[in-house]
Design brief:
This protein is of the alpha+beta class. The chain has 6 helices and 28 strands. A hairpin with a 2-residue loop joins strand 20 and strand 21.
Length: 423
């Protein structure tokens, strides 16, 4: 800077005093300018209030504000159908709002003037969550189906409930249904639906909410009590799970058919003694056979006196297929007097009456054989072969049935064969 002075000095000393004042004034002006510039820069750098900081605190990124002229919510269902240059749903991630936003941090500023709302409105948080919404009748950033939520207010749909797989609350459409985000799509299930995770577990939908996880009752098979027949009388195979209304796990204790269970997934198939069989069965050869009883199904085999007897239906009755004490259907079996024959049959069975003998039909095959007299002597007079009935004729005689299917009265002291029918 150059200054021109016009005037006279009274002395050289006065001139020197003038020069000193000029230097002081020049230094003071420069120093003041420097201080002013430094103070401005310091204040700007340390201030938390400048336009860029407002935008930097957004938990989402808006890239297109064109095309809108009225107040509305940012709904995916509305914006998705618009042309790219008309919609404004392009933000980086709604989920970031959960992680980055706290009360007072996010503000709307510098938006398009065509929007009729207060551009200084503050986005606030719920008192008990980190979900962000707009206060007042202004903008509302709604979450799409599948996004995590704390309540329905922040959702584009009308529901916010627990996801089947993660148990996190997510947005979806129908608040009467339960939701599952499969990764490919957001699926909803009606009340009462049971959705399986393979055969491991399932959850039931009740009132739009998934219930607690129900684990498989038998993931690898277990030994069970089949219909009260005793421990280890059956196996419960690995349970299978079916999704659907009233779905869930299916399966039940399966019978080991008179053998004991060997493991949780297999029954024994041979026996060496009765210890390998149910308490109600016996080991015959290598097979467990149930004891003959009133519950023996007709047409099945049963065990008695160390032998296996078949059963069949004939003449309206269930008959044993052989005589008591016979190992085959052709043998006479144990010859006995009438008094012994009356009580010779197993529990649930008895001697047939003379009428039942007469009514016996197909399947009753009798063969002639020897017999014993009252004295106990054995005779081979095949024409005297009889089978006792339970019908007594008098004190000394009872009715018997011979191999020709004729009913005859026979002395009770004679030793004859006995055949049984079910009670």
């Amino acid at each position: 800077m150059r200054c021109i002075y016009s005037g006279n000095f009274e002395s050289y000393k006065a001139f020197k005093r003038f020069q000193k004042k000029i230097r002081a004034a020049t230094l003071g002006t420069g120093t003041a300018f420097f201080i002013a510039v430094f103070a401005f820069l310091s204040g700007w750098l340390t201030s938390t209030v400048h336009p860029q900081s407002l935008a930097a605190t957004f938990g989402w990124v808006q890239t297109d504000w064109s095309g809108e002229t009225a107040i509305e919510s940012a709904q995916h269902s509305i914006e998705a159908s618009l042309a790219e240059n008309l919609k404004w749903d392009k933000y980086a991630s709604q989920s970031n709002l959960d992680a980055t936003s706290v009360a007072g941090q996010i503000t709307l500023a510098g938006n398009a003037t065509t929007w009729d709302f207060d551009t200084g409105a503050t986005l606030d948080t719920w008192a008990t969550s980190s979900e962000v919404q707009v206060l007042g009748a202004t903008l509302s950033l709604l979450k799409k189906d599948g996004d995590r939520c704390a309540n329905t207010t922040v959702c584009d749909g009308s529901a916010c409930s627990n996801d089947w797989s993660t148990d996190n609350n997510i947005c979806h459409n129908d608040n009467t249904k339960c939701v599952y985000d499969s990764g490919a799509s957001v699926l909803e299930y009606a009340d009462g639906y049971e959705l399986c995770n393979s055969d491991s577990w399932y959850k039931s939908c009740t009132g739009g909410v998934w219930g607690t996880q129900v684990n498989s009752p038998s993931p690898s098979g277990t030994i069970c009590n089949f219909e009260g027949n005793g421990d280890s009388t059956g196996i419960y195979p690995p349970a299978t799970c079916a999704s659907g209304i009233s779905g869930g796990f299916s399966g039940s204790c399966q019978s080991c058919n008179y053998f004991l269970a060997d493991t949780g997934s297999a029954c024994k198939v041979t026996c060496s003694s009765n210890i390998d069989c149910w308490d109600s069965a016996q080991c015959f050869g290598a097979t467990c056979v149930p004891a003959c009883s009133a519950s023996t199904p007709c047409g099945t085999e049963c065990g008695f006196d160390g032998r296996v007897y078949g059963t069949f239906q004939s003449g309206g009755e269930c008959w044993m297929d052989r005589n008591i004490g016979a190992n085959t259907v052709t043998q006479a079996g144990t010859l006995m007097q009438w008094a012994s024959a009356i009580s010779a049959c197993p529990s649930g069975f008895r001697l047939p009456t003379d009428t039942e003998w007469s009514n016996s039909g197909a399947g009753i095959t009798l063969r002639s054989h020897s017999y014993k007299a009252c004295s106990g002597q054995t005779y081979s007079q095949l024409s005297r072969t009889y089978h006792w009935s339970s019908t007594s004729f008098d004190t000394n005689y009872a009715w018997a049935y011979d191999y020709t299917k004729t009913v005859t009265k026979v002395q009770k002291c004679i030793y004859e064969s006995a055949r049984c029918i079910k009670n």
